[in-house]
Amino acid sequence: MPLSVQETEVKNPPVSRPPLDPHLKALENEAIHIFREVAAEFEKPVMLYSIGKDSSVLLHLARKAFYPGRVPFPLLHVDTTWKFREMIEFRDQIAEKYDLDLVVHTNPRGAEEGITPFSHGSALYTDIMKTEALRQALDAGGYDAAFGGARRDEEASRAKERIYSFRTPDHKWDPRNQRPELWNIYNGMVRKGESVRAFPLSNWTEVDIWRYIQAEDIPLVPLYYAAERPYVERDGMMILAEDPRLELLPGETVQQGMIRFRTLGCFPLTGAIRSTASNLEEVIAELEIATVSERQGRAIDRDQSGSMEKKKREGYF
Amino acid sequence: MTATATSPSATILPFAEPLKAVRDTRPLRLITCGSVDDGKSTLIGRLLWDTKAVKEDQAATLARDSGSQNDLGLPDFALLLDGLQAEREQGITIDVAYRYFSTDRRSFIVADTPGHEQYTRNMATGASTADLAILLADARAGLLEQTRRHATIAALMGIRQFVLAVNKIDLVHYDKAIFDRISHDFREFALSLGVRQITAIPMSALKGENVVYPAETSMPWYDGPTLVEALELATVRSTQAGGFRLPVQRVVRPGESFRGYQGTVAGGSVKPGDSVVILPSGTVANVSRIVTFDLVRNAAVAGDAITLVLDRQVDVARGDVIVSLDGQPMTGHHFDAQLVSLQPGGIEPGKRYWLKSGSRRQRVAVEPISQLELATGKWQPHASTLAMNAIGKVRLSFEELAVFDAYDQNRSTGAFILIDPDTLNTVAGGMITAKRGEVGGIHRDQGGEGQRVVLSLPADLAEQLMASELFANRRDETEVKRMTAKQAAELFSNAGGDI
Ligand SMILES: Nc1nc2c(ncn2[C@@H]2O[C@H](COP(=O)(O)OP(=O)(O)O)[C@@H](O)[C@H]2O)c(=O)[nH]1
Ligand SMILES: [Mg+2]
Which of B293, B295, B339 has the most A C-beta neighbours within 10 Å, making it the best mutation to test the interface with A? Predict the structure, then answer.
């Protein structure tokens, strides 16, 4: 079996916990099955690691799937250089703690051409610094399978996607011609250059993710919990004001308030919500009565209906 | 930009609904099927809407995208499902969408499947994992060809619970006689497919009548369950009958001392000390430990993703199946199967395909025998290419020993896909019906001189017998044919007997 990483004994042995409820157990079993299947069938898998809550759950499941062996593939983080500071700190701590192989890639065009979310607008910026960067990193690594933490309940075009999502050599997704996917039998046959994106969390909802984080005590970036933080209001979003690169526009002031984030991405494009939920129990309680979806805080998803499908066709994961 | 997004600081507001109780069951998987425009997507959209699975910003997007497509001033709920650009443009469903909702009682995974005949393969994808099928009929049109076709595929793929939604009842003045007629027709048809758990509900998906909320005022004559009540009462496919099955996905060797076999239990259960056989080699060993990340477990059941450690050094590789000593699956080079052809090229006689089942991939030659004529429900002899969307009976011939259970015994170890070696695409989904001997099949044993008994039983009794361990153990010595009571009567009057 070709493995890209030497298999050695796992570093942090697990602790015993009370059994999961049957619903989460079923989701966990399915995800572990997918991880093992991809690791066995593909020559060079990689896991896309975005540092957010879904990635944190994904990583936890990967560690479970291969225990007592080590996670047999590297983690890839596409760093736009505009992530929240706390995300990067968290990423490096986790890689160290769990003895992971972390690959970080930044599209050099960002620095060369001065592409920032402020100068180029969210759509073009995302296209270059996320989608193009991802394609570059996948090509450079020669990966034939990439795990992602996407869930079908996130967005309408995701709801259509297979668990093994087939991509052409230039990473395109053809939603009208997806391979049929019956039972839990996955077709992992690809030609050289072709690849799949594999989504072990396909059938999880946002509430499932949080309940699982709670049940399994999974560490998260602190930005998910409410705290007194500085922010500015811009385009109907509250943007965290801690990075010196954020320049105030006329009329804007830095305010202080109890805020937190439901999703994490690039700080200039990610809106906070007002919240007093400063721990996991409170976040879950808040979520169970939430009336807006999690992607609501993301500038890049709001451009138009169908914008996610368009990005995915171009190779966004 | 959506309505809610324009207001600064999207505060999470408390909602009037009480908190959902913690779920304590496995999610029920269901599909909707039926003909184009019967209201499948609308129904699921309505289910999501009325169970509060649609959030405010999604609702605002929906309101914006809906325009005015009905006179009732209601949003076009189907847009919640038809997420692809092409689907929105054409107003149809092309591929399966999976959606999630829950009630206080349980959670649901629902696959919205396309109604067009050309997308039947996507319907089969949704059906393969479902526990229950909702079949829709437009109250104005009654049972259509396509509804029968979908019901047939659903039954073939092992779905044993049907809900008939007689939809758009608002357009026929809530007429009880129409509902009774369509449900009577459907019941008869479903019974002929071997499905006996049928709930018929008169419904308006668009107006939300008998979906989540009952409709006593418009349909005082109906006192059955709403759709959601029916779904809450449905059963999740019970753990697979028969012996222990572990298709080995990978071998884990983190150090010199540890060697474990990783996979998902596909049937039965296992505990330390059990004797097991590794197939196809036939080597015997005992289970020494069941390892998971959380703790060393003292048992594992169907569905669990585990790592198994055996008490001795044996040769086990990916693709092997570890099974209980008692109640082994069938092994052989020739099997009978039913399959759904999924791609434009069809399934060609004699062509060598890749077959994947569990974690095993092997070469197979496929020989079509008959094809199901969906209009009549009859199997017609058919030895040439099985065209796209055709359902056929075939004979599989393997170069290397194959290991299977019958699909009606085990939905994991009895299922397979075929992969075209030229395109590498998935070209068929199939279900094993029986093992086949080289000549004369099972009746060849004992030179045709041994004694056999042909029983004619009610389908439910037969199903219970076949689910027993004893039957499962000797499944490959038996032959089962489903037919109507009338056909059975004819068979018996023509047969000799009484040795
Ligand atoms: N009056 C009425 N119209 C309905 C009902 N259910 C669906 N429709 C309409 O029927 C059309 C087709 O519905 P759609 O959900 O796209 O059908 P599908 O092709 O089965 O998914 C749409 O215009 C719906 O608004 C119903 O219960 N009553
Ligand atoms: Mg539809």
Answer: B293
Task: Clarify whether residues B251 and B190 are in a common domain.
Answer: no
Kindly list the residues from chain B whose CB atom is less than 8 angstroms away from the CB atom of residue A310.
85
- pLDDT tens, B101-111? 888 888 899 98
Q: CA distances (Å), A17 to each of A58, B255, B292, in order?
A: 19, 25, 12
Q: How many CA atoms lie within 13 A of A165 on its CB side?
A: 31
- A&B contacts, CB < 8 Å: 231
Q: Provide DSSP, B266-320.
A: -BSEE-TT-EEEEETTTEEEEEEEEE-SS-EES-EETT-EEEEEESS-----TT-
Average pLDDT of the residues in B268-283: 94
Helices (H) and strands (E) in chain B, counts: 11, 23
DSSP string over A194-224: -EEEE-TTTT--HHHHHHHHHHHT----GGG
Q: What's the mean pLDDT in A255-267? A: 94
Which of the listed residues B324, B359, B380 is the one where a domain comes to its end? B324
Query: What residues sit around ligand 2, an ion, with C-beta below 5 angstroms?
Result: B 40-41, 93
pLDDT tens sequence across B151-204 = 998 999 999 999 999 999 999 999 999 999 999 999 999 998 989 899 999 999
CB-CB: which of A156, A185, A202 is closest to B83? A156
Q: Is the CB of B39 under 6 A from ligand 1?
A: yes
The kind and range of the H/E element at A56 are helix A53-66
- Residue spans of beta strands (DSSP E) within B38-126: 97-102, 107-112
Q: Is residue B13 part of a domain?
A: no
The more confidently predicted of residues A176 and B341 is B341
User: Which residues lie closer than 8 Å to A157 by C-beta, 6 or more apart?
Assistant: A175, A306, A308, A309, A312, B83, B84
Q: Answer yes or no: is pLDDT of A13 > 60.
A: no
Asked whether residue B344 is assigned to any structural domain, the reply reads: yes
Look at residues A190, A116, A33, A97 and name the one whose alpha carbon lies nearest to residue B423: A190
Choose from A6, A152, A183, A195 for mutation: most chain B CBs within 10 A.
Answer: A183
Q: Determine which residue's CA is closest to atom 7 belonging to ligand 1.
A: B39
Q: What digits encode the pLDDT tens for the residues A193-211?
A: 999 999 999 999 988 999 9
| Neighbouring-strand partners of residue A197 | A146, A165
Banded pLDDT at B3 (limits 50, 70, 90): very low
Is the distance from CB of B109 to CB of B231 less than 8 angstroms? no
Dihedral pair phi/psi, residue B252, rounded to 5°: -110, 125
Among B270, B301, B324, which residue terminates a domain?
B324
Task: Give yes or no for residue B42 CB within 6 A of ligand 1.
Answer: yes
pTM as predicted: 0.84
Give the tens place of pLDDT for each residue, A51-97: 999 999 999 999 999 999 999 999 999 999 999 999 999 999 999 99
| Contact (Cβ atoms closer than 8 angstroms) between residue A307 and residue A301 | yes
Domains, in order of start, for chain A: 19-216 (3.40.50.620), 221-299 (no CATH)
Paired tokens of B119: 């997308």
> With an 8 Å Cβ cutoff, is B97 touching chain A?
yes
Give the pLDDT of residue B14: 32
Q: Is B78 in the pocket of ligand 1 (CB under 6 A)?
A: yes
- From A133-142, A223-232, B234-243, B325-334, the region with the lowest mean pLDDT: B234-243
| Nearest CA-CA partner of A29 in B47, B222, B27, B162 | B27
Q: ipTM score of the complex?
A: 0.87
CA B49 to chain centroid: 26
Mean pLDDT confidence for A109-118: 87
Range of the domain at B367: 330-445
CA of B37 to the centre of ligand 2 (A): 7
Tokens of B148: 């029968």
